[in-house]
Specification:
Helix content: under 10%
Mean pLDDT: 85
Radius of gyration: 44 Å
Oligomer: single chain
Number of strands: 28
Distance between the termini: 128 Å
Largest sheet: 22 strands, antiparallel, barrel
Length: 564
Amino acid sequence: MSAARRDALLGHRASRLVAIFLASWVLVRAAPLEAQRLRVRVVDVVGDRAYLEPGAARGVRRGGRVRFGARSYEVVATTDSYAVIDITGRPVELGARGLTRRGRSREERSARLPAPTPLEGFEGQWSPARRPSESQRPRYVPLTSALASQRVRLEVRSTSTASIPLDEGPALYQTRLRVRLDARLAQNAPLRLTTDAALQLYFGDVDQRRADASRPIVLARQLQLSYGEDRAFYAAIGRLRSAASMLGTLDGARVSAPEVAGLRVSAFGGAIPEPTSGVPAFDAARFGIELDYAKPDHAWRPSASLVAYGSTFSGSLDERRLAGSLRLLPGPVSTGAHAELAFFDANNPWNAPVAQLLSASVDASAHHGLFHWALRGDYRVPERSRWLASFLPAGYFCVADTDPTACATGNDPRWSANADVELRGTKLAGGATASYVTAPERDTTQWMLLAHLRAVRIAEIARVRWSASVTRGSLMDVYSTRVALGAAFLDGKLDVEAYYRPALRFYTADIRSGFDHRAGAQVLAALARDWQLAFVGDVLLGRDLDALLLQLHLVWRPTFGADG
C-alpha cells in the first residue's frame, strides 16, 4: 500500500472517530434535556385559572413556566396530582397540551430553617404578665342611666309563711303581697314613679301577741314621684325610702343640685313616719342638707358624704346630728369609715353628754388571686330622741338605774369586731370568720368562730356545704355544725338543697345542756321566663321549741320592651 493511500485511510478513520465522538457528545447532552421536559395537559378551566395534569408528584414545580406554543404561563399552585396556571387575558383551550421542565419548588430549594430554641432557653427572660384590669380605667356608667331606656320595671312577690308548733300552742300564718314598680312617665323626660308597698295578712292569735302595732296590714316603704337622673338635677316628693345616704324613711321631699367637679349638694325635709308600723305621722319632722363627693373615674374611686340634720317633735327641737362617711377603692382593695355625732340638751333625760359619738366604724377588704379577706370594727350607742322615746320602752335607750324610768349612765356603748378570710377556687372554697361583741356597762360579751367549706360543680350539677361554729357569751354557749347537699338541674332552672344542723346549747342560768336539731329543704324553680318559685321547709326540735316552719315564695318579674 502506497503512503498516499495509507494516509488517506488513516484520515478517513480519524474523521469517523471524530464524527462518532461528536454524535455521542450531542446524544449525552440532549438526553438530560429531554429527561427534564414534561408534557402537561389542560384538564379544567375555571375563571382565570387553568388546571393541568400531572402535578407536583411528577415534578411540576410552583413558580415554574409552562409553554403552549409561543405562550408561556407561570405555575401558581401545585398539588400531587394537579398544577394551576394563571391565564388572565390569555386563555387556553380545554385539552391543550404543553411543555414544562421538571424541578423542585422554591420552598424545596430553600435552606432548611434552624431548629427552634427549646422552651428552657427562654426561662427567666419574660416578666410576669400585667393584668389589663390593673391599668385600664373604664368610664363609669351608672346603673340608673343604663336602665333608663326601660319604661316600666315591675316585680310582684307573694310570700306565705306558716309557723306550726309540734307540741302545744296555736299556729301563726302570714301572707304578704309585695309590689315594686319603677315607671318612666314621660318618654322624653326623666319623670318617674317609684313604689314599694306590701299588703300583709296575719292569721292566728296575732292580736294577743306583743308588738301587734308593728304588723300593719299595709306597709309602704316607698311611694315617690321623681324628676332627674343620677349626678344631675334631681327632685323627689312622696314617701322616700331614704332621706339621705345615712338616714331612713321620710314623708317629704328631696332636691339635689347637678354635680360640679364631683361635688353635689342636696336638701331634704318632711314628716317622720311611725318607727314601728310605718304609718304616716305629723307630730315629728326631719330636715337637713347633704354634701356628697364621687370620682368614679379616679384610680382610687373615692366617695364621701357629709349629712347635717335635725328634727322637731311636738313643736320643739329634738335631734341634732352630724354624720359622715368615706370610701376608697384602690384596685383590689376597698376601705371605708363612718362616724355620727349627736348633740343633746344639758338636761336630757338619758344623762347623755352635750356632744356624743353615736356610732363609728372602719372596714377594709381585699382580694389577691384566690385569697380574700375583710376586717371591720364598729362602735355604737343606742339611738336617743324624744320622738323614739314616745314609742319604745326606757330600757331601749340605756342601762336602767334602780329607778326603771331613769338611766344610770349616758354611754352604754357596744363594741364589735369582725374578721373574714377565704380561699375561693373554681370548685372548692373555704374560710373562717371570727367576731367579738361586748357591752361593758351591761357586763355582756359574746364571741364566735365559724369555719366553712364548700365544693361546687361536683359532676357539674351537685354541691356540698359544711360549716361549724362555736359561740360563747354571757347568756349562753352554742356549739353547732351544718351540712347541706344540693344540686341544680335543667340548666339551673331547678335547684334543690337539703341540710341538717345539730347544736349543743348551754344556758348560763341553767346547768343542764341540751341538743337542738334543725333540718330542712328548699326547692327553687324558674317556672317560665318571668316566674320564679321557692319553697322552704324547716323542722326545729329542741328544749325550747318544737315547730314546723313552711315558706312559699312566688315572684313575677315581667319584661317590658324599651320605649315600646
